[in-house]
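Page 42, continued from yesterday. The earlier attempt failed because a stray header line got pasted into the input along with the sequence. Redoing it now with the clean sequence only.
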Amino acid sequence: MSGNASNSRTLRTAKAGTTEPLWVKWTLIGIALGFIFLFLVLPLAAVFTEALRKGSGAFLEALKEPDAWSAIRLTLLVAAVAVPLNLVFGVAAAWAIAKYEFRGKAFLTTLVDLPFSVSPVVAGLIYVLMFGAHGWFGPWLQAHDIKIVFAVPGIILATIFVTFPFIARELIPLMQAQGTEEEQAAQVLGATGWQTFWHVTLPNIKWGLIYGVILCNARAMGEFGAVSVVSGHIRGQTNTMPLHVEILYNEYQSVAAFAVASLLALLALVTLLIKSAVEWQFEREQKAAAALPPERPVA
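This time it went through. Structure tokens are written below.
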């Protein structure tokens, strides 16, 4: 019996990948849960509590306010434009980096990672320098009555910049791990480039692509730094939801500020649920694929 117990303990240790005692495991779990509760759950609870502090009537009135509706519409519009564009750019960049060898490949990879290393405020200043009234293209834009900075196009450009790496960075390691054998086989069988992408590449990267889109969308709706610089803070016109929250809070309209912030938090929670569902479905497919018997070679 002792031998069986020892073997069972050894098997559990091997599965866990650690030889630490059980109390270490529960201590680490407790620390992680305490950290999550203190820095994530409590702040979220405080946002919803403050939003509903004066009742649901004040909460709904804050969301019905015209400037709030304008901020909500602008946030959704910016995400609706930035995410599809980054979807196209991200897939193209990931495909080029993962599937081809060419000069400047390392430089292209560095450019993809650039928004991660540049402060969003600096990114906004770059667009002001380029498209502002005294910027490089400012006089030409003014002469042709084209407004980018302190208008919706500038907000979209800044959002595209800060969210560009998310989809590409999800797909590059996935495509590199898959290699090019399946694409080459499809081409040998006569498939065109588009047929190869649609029937071979896309099914293999669909979960990574969906995951990248979710992260990109979450960042697009919550971006503050770059958008704050290029928006001009024109109330009812160029304020996204994060900027509108800042204005309301600075004006001591705390209930209205937390009401809009709670809507942002709710969107973040929905994004988290979708992300979890995608991960669950991906793991389910992997387990189903692993459970399939290996194919026998044709005699």
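Notes: The first helix runs from residue 2 to 16.
Reminder to self: strip header lines before submitting.
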